[in-house]
Q: What sequence folds into this?
C-alpha cells in the first residue's frame, strides 16, 4: 500500500512488551534507500535506524512528534469529515 503527504494513517507500535496505537498524518515520503533526514543534515526523526530498501513514510503524531514506522504496519484512516462513497 502506498501513501501520499497528508494521508491519515495508524499503526500499532510495541516497546517493553506494551502495544500502543498511534495515528497521524504522512508529512514526508522517503524514497527507496533514502533517509528521513532533511537536506541540511538536520534530523527529522530521532534514531531513525538504517535506510530501507523500499519507499517509506515519516508520520507526525499530534502531541508526540515525528515517527518513521514500518510500512507493513501502516493502515489508512478514513477522515470522518469525508462523505461516504
A:
Amino acid at each position: 500500500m502506498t501513501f501520499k503527504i497528508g494521508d491519515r494513517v495508524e499503526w500499532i507500535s510495541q516497546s517493553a512488551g506494551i502495544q500502543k496505537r498511534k495515528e497521524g498524518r504522512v508529512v514526508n515520503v522517503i524514497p527507496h534507500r533514502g533517509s528521513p533526514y532533511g537536506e541540511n543534515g538536520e534530523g527529522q526523526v530521532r534514531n531513525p535506524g538504517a535506510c530501507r530498501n523500499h519507499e517509506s513514510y515519516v508520520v507526525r503524531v499530534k502531541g508526540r512528534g515525528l515517527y518513521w514506522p514500518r510500512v507493513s504496519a501502516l493502515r489508512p484512516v478514513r477522515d470522518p469529515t469525508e462523505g461516504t462513497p
